[in-house]
Write a structure and sequence with these properties.
heterodimer, A: mainly beta, Methylamine Dehydrogenase, Chain H, four-stranded antiparallel beta sheet, 50% strand, B: alpha/beta, Rossmann fold, five-stranded parallel beta sheet, four-stranded parallel beta sheet, signal (chain A), N2O_reductase_N (chain A), YVTN_b-propeller_repeat (chain A)
């Protein structure tokens, strides 16, 4: 641990050695900045302004570009993850909230919450490739592991829209419970998880048939059912564990990826929203919007081991690849 | 009774068919019937009603429903009808004669009740304005869904907050009109329910002069301190001024330095244009872009009423009014309304369960139910008339 601490400021050395820590990037929706942390020491390395109302955040597969939805600026801002200097912006359409990068690193699929559109942007040429009309208040964005299908969830229409990444056409619509927030495939692409904030459930969808094969619901002793609002979803690479952030119930549910049954609820910070694994899946970071911190979950032990104060109303989180 | 509708739906399909990929386009029709009364302008010109009050909310709901409808092969319509209390019944008959079986009603209690009886089993009414408890109690009608919160829900929402704030001693100031008295009764009930004490009730008599004096700073400035003088010790003044005669004059003019709540000051509402939690920012943006003004409670309630019809059509994949009505009244039904939880219909009086916003001029100060108030079924049932106390009995329900 010691040598990591010493090395931490020397970013070039860090990036060169995959065995060392990764950088963790947290958007602070009300603070208009990104907090950068070290994934091994959980030390805050710095806080950087990134534009107005930053929410969705992701990073290119090679770790060279960090993308931030600056919702109130109506652009996606692109940063150098090492220096946090702004490289350029991408046209995003109005009010970008969440996005997903194609597994190849290009293009970027952006949900425009105010405009009932998904905007597709080429991150190299900075050109808008398509604008796809979807349901009311598009929010969650997921992509199939083979990159052929992008999922958008629309919060007031209550659907998961399946978008063909070749034709930019909607090929299927699956009606789910109220206010679908987030869509996440497992890594072999055999299951799609869609969380419904107001419905209080996670729908398990078979992507091949576009049928709902199961619904995960949640019950926490001593917590009002209305407070259980599923938002972010993450699945381990082997598909064995699914983590669901449950919003104002301040819990993350741990689900058996084989049976889709809830195994445990982990107490985290207040209004837990989005989550991200370290590349080795040792840790899972959660953003806690109302307590202004992140929680660190030990994935193997299924335990919360630390909370770290970040900025105002942390929203999204991404960890740099190795 | 539904044959007429099915005929119309099929007719509309044929029309819509060539323009869309889906030949079986279902059409779901509704009406918004707004009954405008002759009344004095509001005390504050900021409260002047816009011409499209309520209609604008319904239009946004039709847009929202249609966006979803594109994927479901469903098309939504809402005809907008303005009426007076004298013409309301005839206008209702007209829309029913067109085959419309969902009517959003924006009227006072008496007109809403009369329209419910007029409609009978020919249409489902969605009450988007009237707040009286009797409409949900002794005068309840099976064909009416109450989207607007009741007086009891609003009073309970405020009472929970005042108790949380540790302000249990109230000076209750009702107006002299019957609707003010009905609201005052809801505050009395809320005080008893949550353990507040009404230290005195002081009637504000509408003598016709107070509101017309001036913009508030000449005669009212002298009148309100005197009116509130020599009250027993109290924590908060609760005004029950449904008629908008005096309450907005009270803040800062009470004899004792006390906060004002109820019809002025901290006001319980179904909605507020500055609400931003639970995804409401996007909703406010959508409305303002469409209507070029901030939203009002009446717009929210009309929006929610049309969304209830839309949600039922989406979930049942049906345009059959009987199927939609049955679904809305079933325990399967819920609708999202930017209030952080699902909104459902109480089976004992057809009141929509919903959180109550406690608002000051510019902001939402709090949202009730307060966390401390628990309920065996739903925390939302701590607001308003609960199952054991209802005076409503539907003939259809055993």
């Amino acid at each position: 641990m010691k040598h990591i601490l010493v090395l931490a400021p020397a970013l070039v050395a860090l990036a060169a050695d995959p065995a060392l820590a990764n950088r963790v990037f947290v958007t602070n929706e009300k603070g208009n900045d990104v907090t950068v942390l070290d994934s091994e020491t959980f030390e805050v390395l710095g806080t950087y302004p990134v534009g107005n109302r930053p929410r969705g955040i992701t990073i290119s597969p090679d770790g060279s570009e960090l993308y931030v939805c600056a919702s109130d600026d109506n652009v996606v801002r692109v940063f150098d993850p090492e220096t946090m200097e702004e490289l350029h912006t991408l046209p995003s359409g109005p009010d970008p909230e969440l996005f997903v990068l194609h597994p190849s690193g290009n293009p970027l699929y952006i949900a425009n919450e105010d405009d009932n559109l998904v905007t597709v942007v080429d991150v190299k040429t900075k050109q808008v490739l398509a604008e796809i009309p979807v349901g009311v208040e598009p929010e969650g964005m997921g992509v199939s592991p083979d990159g052929k299908i992008v999922i958008n969830t629309s919060e007031t229409t209550n659907m998961a829209h399946f978008i063909d990444t070749e034709s930019f056409e909607i090929v299927a619509n699956v009606l789910v419970d109220s206010r679908p927030r987030f869509a996440e495939y497992n890594h072999d692409g055999s299951k799609l998880y869609v969380s419904s904030e107001i419905g209080g459930t996670v729908s398990v969808i078979d992507p091949a048939t576009q049928e709902i094969t199961g619904k995960i619901s949640f019950e926490i002793p001593g917590v009002l059912p209305e407070a259980i609002q599923p938002v972010g979803v993450r699945v381990t690479n082997d598909g064995s564990k699914v983590f669901v952030a449950l919003g104002p119930s301040n819990r993350v549910a741990v689900i058996d990826g084989a049976t889709d049954e809830v195994k445990d609820y982990l107490l985290v910070g207040q209004r837990v929203w989005q989550m991200a694994f370290t590349p080795d899946e040792k840790y899972l970071f959660t953003t806690n919007g109302n307590s202004n911190d992140i929680s660190v979950i030990d994935v193997a032990a299924e335990e919360v081991i630390r909370s770290v104060p970040v900025g105002q109303q942390p929203w999204g989180v991404v960890v740099a690849p190795d | 009774m539904f044959k007429g509708i099915i005929g119309i739906a099929v007719g509309a399909c044929a029309l819509a068919g060539p323009a869309t990929a889906q030949p079986e386009m279902q059409v779901i029709r509704a009406a918004v019937l707004r009954v405008d009364e002759q009344r004095l302008p509001p005390i504050s010109r900021l409260d002047l009603p816009p011409a499209d009050l309520g209609f604008a909310g319904a239009r946004l709901a039709i847009e929202d429903n249609d966006t979803t409808g594109r994927f479901m092969g469903q098309d939504f319509e809402a005809v907008e009808v303005k009426a007076t209390p004298a013409t309301a019944a005839a206008e209702l008959d007209k829309v029913i004669a067109e085959g419309i079986q969902f009517v959003v009603v924006m009227a006072d209690d008496a007109t809403t009740l009369a329209l419910a009886d007029q409609a009978g089993d020919r249409a489902m009414l969605l009450n988007a304005q009237a707040r009286g408890d009797a409409l949900r109690g002794a005068d309840c009608r099976f064909n009416t869904i109450h989207v607007a919160p009741s007086h009891a829900m609003l009073a309970d929402g405020l009472a929970q907050f005042l108790m949380w704030k540790n302000w249990p001693d109230w000076l209750l100031v009702p107006g002299s009109h019957p609707e003010d008295q009905a609201l005052a009764a809801a505050y009395r009930r809320a005080a008893a329910k949550f353990g507040a004490r009404i230290v005195e009730e002081r009637l504000f008599e509408d003598t016709g002069g107070a509101r017309s004096t001036d913009s508030g700073h000449v005669q009212v400035q002298a009148r309100m301190p005197v009116f509130t003088q020599r009250a027993p010790d109290y924590d908060v003044l609760v005004a029950a001024d449904e008629s908008d005669i005096f309450a907005p004059y009270l803040p800062y003019l009470t004899w004792d330095p006390r906060p004002v709540a109820g019809s002025a000051g901290l006001v319980p509402r179904s909605w507020h244009p500055a609400m931003e939690a639970w995804g409401a920012t996007q909703y406010q943006n959508r409305f303002e872009r469409m209507a070029n003004r901030p939203i009002r409670e009446e717009d929210y309630q009309a929006w929610l009423a049309i969304r209830i019809v839309g949600e039922a059509a989406t979930r049942t994949r049906s345009a059959d009014p009987a199927a939609l009505r049955e679904f809305i009244l079933s325990d399967q039904f819920d609708v999202a309304g930017f209030k952080g939880q699902k909104l459902t219909v109480r089976d004992w009086d057809h009141q929509l369960r919903q959180p109550i916003l406690l608002t000051t001029g510019l902001l939402t100060t709090s949202v009730s139910p307060q966390d401390q108030y628990l309920h065996q079924t739903s925390a939302l049932d701590t607001l308003g008339i609960d199952r054991p106390e209802t005076e409503c009995s539907f003939p259809e329900v055993q």
